[in-house]
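Customer escalation, tier 2.

The customer says the design service returned an amino acid string that "doesn't look like it belongs to this structure." They asked us to rerun it and document both sides in this ticket. The original structure tokens are below, unchanged.
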């Protein structure tokens, strides 16, 4: 490894010396960025908020293709999520919500053209024909309102051109450096132009396709495949064992803009996207639970990786003996329930069934429940915006937005060649938002007032699928037909939210501004949920019909549904001072109060049951103290941002995963840290971007499980690396009648937990990702070609993990894609 690093340093030094001798070209990354973080257009350096923002051209230079790619270059921003990157969410300053049920909303709001994306699992989308992105860190509840306690990410589409017809076409072909040698294709194009002097339009299309990069060599396994080594005849169905990590996405966005007068602008846009993917690309690693003697019974206190190739225990009791596992997920372990659970692994050193991943965290695995086109997502959106300038230059804005989101995705619970269980997650959700606001200014002030309405109608289906001949059918005897069972939860959540908001900025002097803001919210929720056993109608459908066993009614003697409603009045606020001692320096300090509405859990049925009292959870409240500065240096060639913060959370909504399911619990938390970022063009042709963040976050008094007899503990939040850093160096020079450019960027993340219990095995390692782009742009700006490399260090950078040590003797984990090489061609017209 040291030799490889030395060669890399020498290569970079040689490249740098060559670049310094070449004739420089213009900068790309230091163009001025205009943001709308305060609901009006301002220069990034003039806004007293911790913001990372990139224009569309900057995102191209940075290699941003998916919505979450911007996290690499945003200090304090990481990714979290579930279903192995098929749905990825943002984690901002350690604030995240990784509950995999789709009725939840994220504490980090994501917007497209001011339209709120209500379903957290819809935060993953292709970035194409985007004008800019704004990442706002810290509570943004006053002006953006919806659940933005951690912050928000706002993507703004490119607008139609009223002057001339213009557009582009951009195509990329590449290959993943994995055993499958999966080829990837990506194409996007847009055209825009005027219909008249008062109307213009723009349409953009996108297509992406690649085969699975995670090679599946099923039925390979040390002890065979199928149920307990029963052979391939017991696989979950025809087509099992497909390669995973593929993509097949199509999207289109259209926009019409009208300017009937100098004072009025009307914009209508529509978008549609659909994706088909294989089963989620998870891999398995062998783990073992560690138990402590409590009341003579035993309590799970840790999970560790199986590192001893001779390990045969399924659980480690307090005296070191085999405590057993919970393969039927009834909450009883082998020593307590020897008739239904395991005592001893089928094969030493592997999971309960003897499986050992063939190459660890490499790109080869063996999994039975893996099918082509097993999952799908479909999104549709409409957005209608009116801006009208009134007397005294007051601006009235109306934003109407509707979205529909449908999803059904699958993963293999054990991620191994054993026909045990699969997990599914489906949703059909609609959201509607309406915002009216009025902005204005005087000689000494700027202000905005508004009204916001949100309606979300969400229906989710989550659960566990036991295919034919699977473990549940063999162990429990509950299922009268051999085709297997869906153990599912159906949840319906209807939300109506109304809010009034305002922000007032008063110039106390020529250099000092006082900012105050307030949002008052009325939140109404109606919830309905049932859990049951459903006949399995196949590996591509879930929860068909009514359950033939209703868990609440038939097992617990309760009503068929859990039903509840609630009405809450909430508020968020802001108090801040800005000081501009000079035109190139802004200092700011402030107090923000953020709030995220209360809601309900919809846990997957499992042996570790959750009482009804744990289904609702309370709103979370965040008080944030922040201070920072923004400085412009060297005649505008360098921009610096620094921000320090302290968070005090009451009832932070933390997701506690145990067994095969989990619930959101309220727990107090605190977090403090800082962020630093710089963008510079120190000399002609050179662009440099650098950022780093550090934080210390704690979630307090978290139980090991619901109703655990052991004391609660203080833990780290999930997906919250303590330290992150990223940087990019780009140099452009005149060559071949145009501009040649080389850019190298890297991002580092410290290690982080993916389970709130912070067990030893539930942690992803630190990683460093390296990307390279070598491009040539013709002198007239029409043609561009580029060679691109992503993840050149071929790091297994963790996305999502599940601790299933007591169920299968394994944790299932997923990683960002492997090393990739590509060739890009773009034509502008």
């Amino acid at each position: 490894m040291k030799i490889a690093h030395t060669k890399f340093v020498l290569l970079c030094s040689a490249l740098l010396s060559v670049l310094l001798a070449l004739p420089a070209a213009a900068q790309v990354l230091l163009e001025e960025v205009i943001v709308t973080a305060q609901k009006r257009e301002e220069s990034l350096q003039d806004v007293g908020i911790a913001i990372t923002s990139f224009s569309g051209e900057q995102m191209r230079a940075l290699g941003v293709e998916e919505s979450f790619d911007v996290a690499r270059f945003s200090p304090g921003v990481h990714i979290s999520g579930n279903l192995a990157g098929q749905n990825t969410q943002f984690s901002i300053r350690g604030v995240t919500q990784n509950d995999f049920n789709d009725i939840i909303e994220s504490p980090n709001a994501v917007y497209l053209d001011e339209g709120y994306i209500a379903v957290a699992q819809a935060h993953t989308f292709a970035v194409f024909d985007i004008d800019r992105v704004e990442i706002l860190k810290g509570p943004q509840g006053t002006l953006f309102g919806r659940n933005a306690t951690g912050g928000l990410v706002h993507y703004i589409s490119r607008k139609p051109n009223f002057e001339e017809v213009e557009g582009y076409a951009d195509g990329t072909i590449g290959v993943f450096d994995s055993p499958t040698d999966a080829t990837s294709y990506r194409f996007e194009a847009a055209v825009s132009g005027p219909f008249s002097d008062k109307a213009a339009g723009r349409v953009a299309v996108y297509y992406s396709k690649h085969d699975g990069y995670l090679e599946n060599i099923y039925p390979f396994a040390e002890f065979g495949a199928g149920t307990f080594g029963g052979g391939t005849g017991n696989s979950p169905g025809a087509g099992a064992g497909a390669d995973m990590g593929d993509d097949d996405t199509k999207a289109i966005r259209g926009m019409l803009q009208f300017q009937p007068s100098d004072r009025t602008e009307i914009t209508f846009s529509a978008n549609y996207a659909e994706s088909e993917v294989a089963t989620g690309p998870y891999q398995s690693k062998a783990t073992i639970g560690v138990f402590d003697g409590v009341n003579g019974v035993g309590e799970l206190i840790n999970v560790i990786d199986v590192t001893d190739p001779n390990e045969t225990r399924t659980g480690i009791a307090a005296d070191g003996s085999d405590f057993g596992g919970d393969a039927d997920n009834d909450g009883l372990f082998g020593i307590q329930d020897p008739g239904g659970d395991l005592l001893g692994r089928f094969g030493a050193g592997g999971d309960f069934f003897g499986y050992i991943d063939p190459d660890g965290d490499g790109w080869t695995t063996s999994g039975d429940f893996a099918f082509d086109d097993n999952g799908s997502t479909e999104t549709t959106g409409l957005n209608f915006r009116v801006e009208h300038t009134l007397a005294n230059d007051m601006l009235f804005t109306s934003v109407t937005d509707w979205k529909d989101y449908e999803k059904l995705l699958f993963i293999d619970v054990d991620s191994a060649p054993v026909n045990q269980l699969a997990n599914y997650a489906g949703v059909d959700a609609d959201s509607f938002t309406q915002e009216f606001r009025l902005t204005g200014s005087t000689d000494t002030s700027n202000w905005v007032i508004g009204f916001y309405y949100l309606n979300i109608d969400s229906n989710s289906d989550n659960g566990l699928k036991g295919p034919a001949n699977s473990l549940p059918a063999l162990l429990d005897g509950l299922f009268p037909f051999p085709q297997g069972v869906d153990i599912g939860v159906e949840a319906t959540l209807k939300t109506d939210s109304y809010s009034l908001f305002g922000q007032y900025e008063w110039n106390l002097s020529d250099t000092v501004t006082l900012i105050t803001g307030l949002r008052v919210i009325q939140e109404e929720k109606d919830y309905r949920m049932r859990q049951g056993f459903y006949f399995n109608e196949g590996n591509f459908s879930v929860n068909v019909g009514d359950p033939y066993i209703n868990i609440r009614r038939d097992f617990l003697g309760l009503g068929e549904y859990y039903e509840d409603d609630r009405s809450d009045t909430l508020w968020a606020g802001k108090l801040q001072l800005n000081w501009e001692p000079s035109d190139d320096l802004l200092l700011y300090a402030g107090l923000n109060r953020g709030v995220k509405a209360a809601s309900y859990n919809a846990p997957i049925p499992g042996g570790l049951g959750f009482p009804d009292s744990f289904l609702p959870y309370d709103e979370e409240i965040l008080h944030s103290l922040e201070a920072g500065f923004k400085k412009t240096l060297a005649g505008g060639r360098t921009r610096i941002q620094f921000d320090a913060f302290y968070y005090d959370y009451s009832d932070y909504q933390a997701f506690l995963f145990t067994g095969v399911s989990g619930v959101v619990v309220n727990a107090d938390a605190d977090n403090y840290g800082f962020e630093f970022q710089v963008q510079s063009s120190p000399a002609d042709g050179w662009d440099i971007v650098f950022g780093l963040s550090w934080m210390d976050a704690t979630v307090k008094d978290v139980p090991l499980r619901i109703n655990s007899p052991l004391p609660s503990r203080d833990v780290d939040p999930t997906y919250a690396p303590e330290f992150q850093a990223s940087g990019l160096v780009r140099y452009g020079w005149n060559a071949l009648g145009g501009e040649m450019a080389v850019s190298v960027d890297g991002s580092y993340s410290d290690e982080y937990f993916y389970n709130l219990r912070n067990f030893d095995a539930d942690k992803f390692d630190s990683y460093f990702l390296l990307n390279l782009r070598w491009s040539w742009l013709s002198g007239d700006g029409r043609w561009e070609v580029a060679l691109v490399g992503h993840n050149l260090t071929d790091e297994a950078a963790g996305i999502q993990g599940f601790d299933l040590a007591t169920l299968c003797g394994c944790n299932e984990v997923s990683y960002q894609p492997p090393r990739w090489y590509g060739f890009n061609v773009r034509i502008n017209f």
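Tier 2 assessment: The sequence is consistent with the input. The chain has five helices and 44 strands. The chain has one domain: 23-287+358-828. Sent an explanation to the customer and offered a walkthrough call.
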